[in-house]
Structures are given as structure tokens and as C-alpha cells.
Amino acid sequence: MVNLTPKLNPKGWDEMFSNDGVRDSYSQVLHTLQNLNKESLQDKQKQASDFFMNQGITFTVYSDDNQGIERIFPFDIIPRIITQQDWLEVENGIKQRLEALNLFLEDIYNEQNIINDGIIPAALIASCPHYIQEVQGIKVPHNIHVHIAGIDLIRGAKGEFYVLEDNLRCPSGVSYMLENREITKRIFPDMLTSNKVSMVGNYPMIFHSILVSLSPRNVANPNVVLLTPGIYNSAYYEHTFLARQMGIPLVEGRDLVVNNNKVYMKTTSGLHQVDVIYRRLDDEYLDPLVFKPDSTLGIPGLISAYRQGNVAIVNAVGNGVADDKAVYAYVPDMIKYYLNQEPILKNVPTYQMENLEEREIAFSDMENMVIKETNQSGGYGMIMGNKATQEELDNAKIAIAANPRNFIAQPIIQLSTVPCLIDGELKLRHVDLRPYALCGPKGVQIVPGGLTRVALTEGSLVVNSSQGGGSKDTWIIK
User: Fold this and answer.
1) Which phi and psi angles does 251 have, rounded to 5°?
2) How many angstroms separate the CA atoms of 56 and 38, rounded?
3) With the C-alpha atoms ordered 324, 329, 332, 336, is the resulting torsion angle positive or negative?
4) In whole angstroms, how far apart are CA 257 and each of 212, 226, 251, 295, 298?
């Protein structure tokens, strides 16, 4: 039997253990684990690794010389459990947040009342590289700009949830959430049933229904496609997985053509009009006639067809202005402005480097700050003050002073921990959570679970797979 004694996260919240012992939500799981010997647990971990290898579940890590290295996605077999009560707070908070962010995007690309009323500085929006002037005034179906969102959450020292960032462009990772559940079904089939774990497997069906509902044509079977940059993209596995799960064609830009402001897919039986494009391609590559003229990934004339309302693009073009890390600081103000409500989920306190007073506060306490570039993702362009050398901190100050709009600073928050099976033993590791929200004409639906990302390196707070992180199955227990 595996000997488990309660361990605590001395600087924060542990999801399995409290000062009083094992949390009720974990009692059945811990009982099951205690009845397994070390060899059985290691065998289950090997089963999981073999499954991911055989399924080709990979991601790409890019080195300093921009060389891509293909890796199997690390998976830890010990689930991360969230109670129904805690999940209700997450669900309501994300729904509120997305309602405000959708209203913001509709406003910022049309009347811009939030700027005119002095809530958000005009210069902040104008300087955002992902504010796309070319889509100003385009009416999107049902005024919905965000159809799928991955909202990154962390838990603070008392277990309270914070929003770390909003991913509103092409959020990734949902395939790992679904595959994590599949492997759990194989290695712990009885635990899922006995713990009354909410299902996540209906995600593709819900999302496909939303995509169909966005069709500009009133036809029985709208033509929906998934647009991928191709096999060299780091998330290509996910593109193929989702296309297969939803039963829609996986296409590249060369498979589509625009004729008379309508998009068509090339097939062996001729051209078929495309109604909805779920794109996994960044804005700047979508249409070489509007954005990057040397892009071979997009479709010439796509934005013209989009402007005419002849094709829906998911997520909408230009969403990056709403998940810019400098704009993130204003989301609580958006909620108050558009909804006249107090935010249910808090932001992490954020210092704007363009504000001299806030910059001085950050500079005076750099060792306890995380410095982020406002338009980077995947853990790139980030400096953890408590791990950085003095030279790195000094260089960061120089870079910030040269281009303050490009940076924010946030106090380092000790992420919650969950035990992980490492080298045959349970060890505490830090985690975050990315729930996936789907927005359609009937409202927001949030899959009861999400992708729990794990910082597998001891003491690390960086959970991104690109930085050596892994994942866990996430259970919402009824």
C-alpha cells in the first residue's frame, strides 16, 4: 500500500489537504490510492503515457533558435477535484466576465462609448497591436465576438479564485481536457462513477451546435470547416482531433477560395460554399489582401466576404484587443460599466507600466513581481522576480522604461497545489485551471471541468506546457 500522510502547502492552498486533514472531496480518491501499491500506481502512469504516445497527443516547444521540438503532453494520473459549490462561483464569474467582454468588443469596434465616457484611455486601445482597424463596423452574427474562451484561473492562499488572463482569440488545450478524461476512464473507471464526476465529453456536440447556429445562410446543413495553419503548427494535433470529433472538414487556406465575396471549399465535386469558419489561425495571417501580404496560410478576399456577412469567423476577428494584458486590468471596470455589477471573480492586482506611480511600486519590489509582456502567451516573455538574477531584473527595468506599454507587473501569487505522482511518490505541485466557455445565441455554456495545468518542476509557478508543464484530469463532483 502507498503510505500517504497529509502534506500542506506552507505558502498557499492545497486542494487535497487542509489543516484538519484530507478534504471531504478527496476522501474517496485517497482511499482508492492508499489501497494501491507503488508498482500499481507506476503501471497506471505508464498506461497513461503509452496512451498519449499511441494517440499522438503532442505539442511543440520552441527553442531560442526557433526550432520546434515535438513532445508528448505530460499527464499526471491524480485528478484535480473541485466541489460543485466552488464550481458554481467559477461558472457565474466566467459568464459575467464574458458578457462584459462581448459587450466591450461590440462597443470598441462600433460606437466606442467606453472610451468616450472615459472608462478606458483611447491611447491604450490605439496602441494595442491586436486592435484591428480593418474590421471596424463589421456586424457579427448575434453580436457575439467570443464563441469559445479559455479563462485562466488560479487559487490564492485562502482558496479564493482569481482570473489570471482571458484567452479570446484561438484558445487551445480543449483536446487535452477531453483526452485526459478518456485516459482516466481507462485507468480509474470505478472512481469516476463513485465520485459522481460531471461529464465533459459533450463539448464537441455543444460547440458544433453553436457553429451551425452562426450560419449566414438559412440552410438545413450549413457548411462548417476548421481552418488550420497546417502540420507544423504546435497545436495541429488538436485541430485534427476537434475536426474529427465534430465531423467537419479540416482545411488549410489553399483549400478555400473567395469568389464574388463568398467563400468556397475546393472539393472533387466542385466548389462548395462555406458558411462558418472555425479558424485556428491568427488574425494577421487570415487574408493577405488586408493583413500580411506574404501570408500563404490565409485566403485572399476573406475579410471582404466577412464584411459582407457571407461567412462567419469563429472567434471573431479583432478579439485580441480584449485579451491584451494591459486591457485585462480594465475588465472589472467593464463589468461595472456594461452590467452595473460587481465582479464575481477578481483580477490579479496589476500594475500598468505606463503609469509612473505604478511603475515605481513595481520597480521597488521587483523580487516579488512577475513581469509580463502584454501580447505574449504560452509563458514566453515572462520574468519571475523571485527566480531572476539581478542582471535580469536590471535588464527588465531598461526594457520597461524603453517601451512601458509593452509590459505589466503583478505580485507573485502562490498558486494552489495538488499532489502529483512523481517518481512513484505523491509530491505537491502548483496548478492553474483553464475552463472552456462556449458562447452562442442561447447564452454561455461552460463545460464542467477544464484543463488543469501543472508545474511539474518542484517549486515552479509556471504551468505552461511550453515551459515544461503537464496536466491533470479535472473533476467537478456533484
Assistant:
1) -125, 155
2) 27
3) negative
4) 21, 15, 11, 15, 10
Q: Are 227 and 170 within 8 A, CB to CB? A: no
What are the pLDDT digits (tens) for 101-116? 999 999 999 999 999 9
Residue 20: Cβ-neighbour burial (10 angstroms; 0-12, 13-18, 19+): exposed
3-state SS, one letter per residue, for 395-450 = HHHHHHHHCHHHEEEEECCCCCEEEEEECCEEEEEEEEEECEEEEECCEEEECCCC
- CB 80, CB 197: distance < 8 Å: no
Residue 284's H or E segment, with its range, is none
pLDDT value, residue 85: 95
CA distance linking residue 239 with residue 151, whole number of Å:
20
Contacts of 351 (CB under 8 A, 6+ apart): 358, 359, 361, 362, 369, 408, 409, 410
Per this entry, what is the length of the chain?
478
Q: For residue 288, what is the enclosing H or E element?
A: none
CA distances from 28 to 78, 97, 159, 163, 474 (A): 12, 34, 21, 29, 15
Quick check: helix, strand or coil at residue 364? Answer: helix
Residue with cell 505539442: 59
Spatial contact of 130 and 170, defined as CB atoms under 8 Å apart: no
Q: Residues 374, 408: contact at Cβ < 8 Å? A: yes
- For residue range 230-266, list pLDDT tens digits in order: 998 888 999 999 999 999 999 999 999 999 999 999 9
Structural domains of the chain in order of their starting residue, each with its CATH number: 217-310 (3.40.50.11290), 352-411 (3.30.1490.270)
Residues 357, 361, 362, 363: is their CA dihedral positive or negative? positive
Q: How far apart are CA 273 and CA 138, in angstroms?
A: 21
Those residues with Cβ within 8 angstroms of residue 18's Cβ, 6 or more apart along the chain or in another chain = 8
Distance from C-alpha of 124 to C-alpha of 375, rounded to nearest angstrom? 13
* Residues 412, 410: Cα–Cα separation, whole Å: 6
Q: Residue 158: is it exposed, middle or buried by C-beta count within 10 angstroms (0-12/13-18/19+)?
A: exposed
How distant, in Å, are the alpha carbons of 57, 189, 201, 225, 398 from that of 182?
Answer: 12, 10, 9, 25, 48
> Predicted confidence band at 212 (pLDDT cuts at 50, 70, 90)?
very high
User: Order of strands across the sheet with 276-279?
Assistant: 250-251, 224-227, 276-279, 312-314
AA identity, residue 121 = P
Burial of 391 (0-12, 13-18, 19+ CB in 10 A): exposed
State how far the Cα of 167 lies from the Cα of 144, in Å rounded to an integer. 15
What's at 8, amino acid-wise? Answer: L
